[in-house]
Design brief:
There is one protein chain. By secondary structure, the chain is of the alpha/beta class. It has 2 domains: about 120 residues, Aspartate Aminotransferase, domain 1, CATH 3.90.1150.10; about 220 residues, Aspartate Aminotransferase, domain 2 (3-Layer(aba) Sandwich), CATH 3.40.640. About 35% of the residues lie in helices and about 15% in strands. It contains 11 helices and 12 strands. The strands form 3 sheets. A 7-stranded mixed sheet has the order 2-8-7-6-5-3-4, sandwiched between helices. Strands 9-10-12 form a 3-stranded antiparallel sheet. The chain is globular. The protein binds 4'-deoxy-4'-aminopyridoxal-5'-phosphate. 4'-deoxy-4'-aminopyridoxal-5'-phosphate binds next to helix 4. The site of 4'-deoxy-4'-aminopyridoxal-5'-phosphate has 12 residues, from helix 4. Keywords: Amino-acid biosynthesis, Aminotransferase, Histidine biosynthesis, Pyridoxal phosphate, Transferase. This is Histidinol-phosphate aminotransferase. InterPro entries: Aminotrans_II_pyridoxalP_BS, Aminotransferase_I/II_large, HisP_aminotrans, PyrdxlP-dep_Trfase, PyrdxlP-dep_Trfase_major, PyrdxlP-dep_Trfase_small.
Length: about 350
């Protein structure tokens, strides 16, 4: 029987996200969600927005949200683009900036898997740049001259799933050496100790900073992502968005996002708690014999010299603890573990102790 779709679609493999079960008793440390709920002000704002006005279409320019981001970083709201999670923002970035350029996108060989998925989906050639032996991005490898002129560059900072960071000066160097192409820095995890490249934008209009409210603002369920860049690049993203006639964010998500950005003390308290717990968890895992990469994200990336990563992940799953394992070259011995509460770390480590004997 005809399958009704072509070879291109047949070649796509569905994205396998970390297991999303919310079953009771499950310790979910596999998708880097925030262990603390969103700010109480967010819940209040959603309550207020959830009224008769829901009969109206949302503001398709997300003006209040872009203004709140503008205030946060002291930038013009015209430098801000909002979408349903940073995954959707990234889709617009790929469509607007990298598609049909006839040149490859440069990216690390180990980074967020969606970049390659989007390249496949939008027919963008890929040029992979290996990480160093200690899993760091090597800035010089992106500075050029390039074998083939690239359409652009993308990486996460901190990188995922390694948690390793580049310094701002290194990012500035990459952007300066590639001034005629977009350099995208995905800052999904930037609020857990790294510095945002937003401050470089004035000097480097080719930088595109992508952020999410899913992690440090604890709004994964609302789907809010941002691109922050020069007005010209943002205009390109808006052209792509508008040609799909899309409403990027629903009314409740916009209200929630504004309220989250306007509660800096809750944000600070919870992210500091997560950073403290990252240190504690790192020590507890090291005491169990794990090698833990230095992380500036809300997860750690760790391997045990005597235990297979995949087997550990399966054994943990059997004990109702979810962590992330990637069946990929170089990192298949690692576990990526989301930083939760102190209780979460204790439970994880006591189960690990039992499993590893
Ligand atoms: N970028 C990176 C590096 C991520 O790890 C994630 C989360 N999986 C995302 C973007 C997407 O996050 P969201 O769509 O929830 O904003």
């Amino acid at each position: 029987m005809s399958r009704y779709w072509g070879d291109e679609v047949a070649s796509l493999s569905p994205y396998v996200a970390g297991e999303q079960s919310k079953a009771e008793g499950l310790l979910k440390l596999n998708t880097n969600e925030n262990p603390y709920g969103p700010s109480p002000r967010v819940i209040e704002a959603i309550g207020q927005a959830a009224g008769p006005n829901l009969r109206l279409y949302p503001d398709n320019t997300s003006k209040a949200l872009r203004q709140a981001v503008g205030q946060l970083y002291d930038i013009d709201p015209d430098c801000v683009f909002a979408g349903n999670g940073s995954d959707e923002v990234l889709a617009h970035v790929f469509k607007a900036l990298f598609r049909r350029q006839g040149r490859p996108l440069l990216l690390p060989d180990i980074t967020y898997s969606f970049y390659r998925t989007y390249c496949q989906l939008y027919d963008i050639p890929v040029q992979l740049v290996p990480l160093s032996d200690d899993f760091a991005i090597v800035p010089d490898d992106y500075a050029g001259p390039h074998r083939q002129p690239p359409a652009g560059i993308i990486f996460s900072n901190p990188n995922a799933p390694t948690g390793r960071v580049l310094a701002l000066a290194e990012i500035a160097g990459i952007a300066a050496a590639n001034a005629d192409i977009p350099v995208v820095v995905d800052e999904a995890y930037v609020d857990f100790g790294a510095e945002s490249a937003v401050t470089l934008l004035e000097q480097r209009p080719n930088l595109v900073v992508v952020q999410t409210l899913s992690k440090s603002r604890s709004l994964a369920g609302m789907r809010v992502g941002l691109a922050i860049s020069s007005p010209t690049i943002i205009e390109g993203l808006n052209r792509v968005k508008d040609s799909f006639n899309s409403y990027p964010l629903d009314t409740l998500a916009q209200a929630a996002a504004v309220a989250a950005l306007e509660d800096p003390s809750y944000f600070d308290e919870t992210r500091q708690a997560i950073m403290r717990e990252r240190d504690d968890l790192t020590q507890q895992l090291a005491a169990l014999g794990f090698e833990v990469l230095p992380s500036m994200a809300n997860f750690v990336f760790a391997r045990h010299p005597q235990h297979d990563g995949g087997e550990l992940a399966r054994a943990l799953r059997a004990q109702n603890v979810l962590v992330r394992h990637f069946n990929l070259p170089r990192i298949d011995q690692f576990l990526r573990i989301t930083v939760g509460t102190p209780d979460d770390s204790r439970r994880l480590c006591s189960v690990l102790k039992r499993i590893m004997g």
